[in-house]
Design brief:
This protein has about 250 residues and is of the alpha/beta class. About 45% of the residues lie in helices and about 10% in strands. The chain has 9 helices and 8 strands. Strands 2-1-3-4-5 form a 5-stranded parallel beta sheet, with helices on both faces. Strand 3, helix 3 and strand 4 form a beta-alpha-beta unit. The relative contact order is 0.10.
Length: about 250
């Protein structure tokens, strides 16, 4: 399916990982194009014209700006965007005619063993069969299981952002807060050490990216549900699962 990929931002964490995977998987290296911030606009346009699939691996905060800048040349091409939050792309009328095929690698390549790699692919603008075929090809190239994400009702990008409000924004906030409490407690047990290690890994990431992850529009609902779980924690049966259905978000931006 992907025959002439362009990796935008190939020197970054995700872009470098995708480029190396494509180089290993594709028959000819000269079928692969790449650009970064050091390329001129003419360089970028030339490579866009030669590509069929664009892996957009620029920082989250730069994604919309890049799309606006090169939008006329992007029509008809698959844009495999890598943003941690998707709604700002799918809900922007300026991008309504772009063929987004959304990816999300749920790990940091430089710090995650192969056996722990996972991710997802989906699109609200492309046929399911095409998205599945893309996921199989790129998953093989990246040695990563890319799950095909679907929504039971409503747009899939909304389900993605709701999941990330819990799995990213909420988890990050809880881990960092808990680690701050544990680090003042002196000696740590095994679980406490693991919590602090995960918090250290988070602190080594991009602060701007993590700040934007915390601005996920669905985080407020997840925080409410988490506080309810804490409030109704079953002290007499501490290992029992706590079922607390997250409240429905009132409207979307």
């Amino acid at each position: 399916m992907v025959k002439a990929p362009l990796v935008v931002g190939y020197k970054g964490e995700i872009g470098r990982f995708i480029l190396l995977g494509l180089l290993e998987d594709m028959p000819k290296a000269n079928d692969i194009f790449c650009v970064d911030v050091n390329n001129s606009d003419d360089d970028v346009l030339e490579r866009i014209e030669k590509s069929d699939t664009i892996f957009l691996c620029v920082p989250l905060q730069a994604t919309a700006t890049w799309l606006r800048k090169f939008r006329p040349a992007l029509k008809g091409r698959i844009i495999a965007e890598q943003s941690s939050i998707k709604s700002f792309l799918y809900e922007d009328p300026e991008f309504a005619d772009l063929r987004f095929l959304s990816m999300h690698l749920l790990f940091r390549p430089s710090a995650t063993p192969v056996e722990n790699r996972s991710g997802m692919v989906f699109s609200d603008r492309m046929p399911k069969a095409q998205v599945k075929a893309f996921g199989e090809q790129i998953g093989r190239a990246l040695r990563t299981n890319l799950e095909f994400l679907q929504a039971r009702r409503g747009p899939t990008y909304v389900r993605h952002d709701q999941m990330m409000a819990r799995q990213q924004a909420l988890v990050h906030r809880v881990l960092l807060s808990l680690a701050d409490s544990l680090e003042d407690a002196g000696s740590l047990n095994y679980i406490g050490q693991r919590v602090c290690e995960l918090a250290t890994r988070l602190r080594q990431g991009d602060p701007t990216l993590y700040r934007m992850i915390q601005n996920n529009p669905h985080l407020e609902a997840e925080m409410e549900a988490f506080h309810k779980r804490l409030d109704c924690f079953p002290v007499d049966h501490p290992l029992r699962r706590i079922r607390a259905k997250p409240p429905q978000k009132k409207g979307r931006r």
